[in-house]
Structures are given as structure tokens and as C-alpha cells.
Amino acid sequence: MKFFIDTADVGEIRQAAELGMLDGVTTNPSLVAKTGRVFREVLGEILEVVDGPVSAEVTATDFEGMKREAQDYASMHDNIVIKIPIIEEGLKAIKWCSENGIKTNVTLCFHPLQALMAAKAGASYISPFVGRLDDISTDGMHLITQIRSIYDNYGYDTEILVASIRHPMHVVEAGMIGADVCTIPFKVIQALLKHPLTDSGLARFLEDWKKVPG
Ligand code: E4P
């Protein structure tokens, strides 16, 4: 399974990259707003830190505007993936990008039919938001199971990128279902390694080692 980090904070991206498990980065307008910085500058820095797919989201809601933004971001680097919302105009933009060699990450997916439409349009990645579904008392991970079945039934190669991850168990479940990618907030990445028995076990080993002669 590939691990992307879900942030526009270059400091967090650097720290995650140092762990040696980072395959890519996803951003969205809210994450970029949190940085208080100019997006193109942030994007340029991210591209220097990570050699993998980096999602940049369009903010136009019409086909021509999305196409312009897609061309603009894609011209920055081969690793840029254009994030496009799953709306009618977005679908046209996904198809256009696919026909013009530009990778896409289709965002704001909350239903298997949206994922099917995205795959048919040639999306590179589909981003189902599991946490936001959980937030409204709907089983977010069930959506991942549904999309996995549909894509496998018909051989779509659109990668399932589990988004809106809130805790480590989302990553475990995504792995068991066979999702291709998880995009994970930095805090959750840090939590992936944590186990109290590892900490107490290490403390005991170190204490016992002091009793070893020499
Ligand atoms: C990622 O691509 C999404 O934009 C992100 O995971 C959404 O997460 P949130 O629901 O925590 O805002």
C-alpha cells in the first residue's frame, strides 16, 4: 500500500519523508489556506522534498477553468496530479486530462457511483472521504469495499486513494480491503508506529541491559 501525506505543511512533509515511507502528497484548498502561504511557492517546495505524486486541486468549477488550472499546474512538474471534484464539469475535465496525459485525483467522492463515473472518465485516482462519512454516522470504509469490488469486477485501473483518514484503524481497514493508497494526516502517520507494549518492552530491555556485565 502506498502512503501519501495529507497536508500542505512543508515542515510536516519533510519529517514524514525522513521516515522513509512517504510515496506522495495530497493537498486541498483548506489545507493550503492553513499555511497562509502562496500555493505555487508551497507546491514548488513540496516537489523538491518528495519524488512522487503531488495533488494540486483546481478551484474553478467550469470545464474551461479546470482545464486552464490543470494545464498550469501540470506544467510545473511531471509528478503533479490534478485534483478535480466529482461534478459534471469535473467529469469533462477528468476525461480531457486523461486524453492529454495529465494525471487526476478525483475528490469529494461519497458514493460508489461517483467512483464508477470517475473511472469511466479515466481518473488516475479516486478519493473517497471515509472520515467525513463516519462523521455523519455512515460507514466510510464500506464505501471502500464497494469501490474495490466494482473496480475489480470490470478491471478499472483507477487507484483507490482513501482520504479523510482520522485514525490508524482506517489505515488497517483500508489495507485489508485492498485500497491502493492512504492519504494520511501527519498526526496519524506518527500514531501508526505507536504501541504501549513496544514502549514498555523497550524500557525493560534497556533497564535489563544495564545488568549485563561489561
Ligand atoms: C484529501 O485528499 C482530502 O482532501 C482530505 O483527506 C480531506 O480530509 P478531511 O475530511 O479531514 O478534511
Task: Characterise the protein shown here.
This protein has an eight-stranded parallel β-barrel, surrounded by six helices. The protein is 52% helix and 17% strand. α9 links the parallel β7 and β8. α8 packs parallel to α9. The chain has one domain: Aldolase class I (TIM Barrel, Alpha-Beta Barrel), CATH 3.20.20.70. The chain contains eleven helices and eight strands. It binds erythose-4-phosphate (E4P). The site of erythose-4-phosphate has 11 residues, from α7.
Q: How is this fold's topology laid out?
A:
Blueprint: E1 2-6, H1 10-18, E2 24-26, H2 29-35, H3 39-49, E3 54-57, H4 63-74, E4 80-85, H5 88-99, E5 104-109, H6 112-120, E6 125-128, H7 130-135, H8 140-154, E7 159-162, H9 168-177, E8 181-184, H10 186-192, H11 196-209
Parallel strand pairs: 1-2, 1-8, 2-3, 3-4, 4-5, 5-6, 6-7, 7-8
Helix pairs in contact: 1-3, 4-5, 6-8, 8-9
The structure holds erythose-4-phosphate (E4P).
Number of strands: 8
* Named CATH architecture: Alpha-Beta Barrel
Q: What share of the residues lie within helices?
A: 40-55%
| Mean pLDDT rating | 98
CATH class: Alpha Beta
- With strands numbered from the N-terminus, the spatial order across the biggest sheet is 1-2-3-4-5-6-7-8
In angstroms, what is the radius of gyration? 19 Å
CATH homologous superfamily heading: Aldolase class I
Query: Roughly what fraction of the amino acids lie in strands?
Result: 15-25%
List the total number of helices: 11
Low-pLDDT windows of residues: none
Compounds present?
erythose-4-phosphate
N/C terminus separation = 44 Å
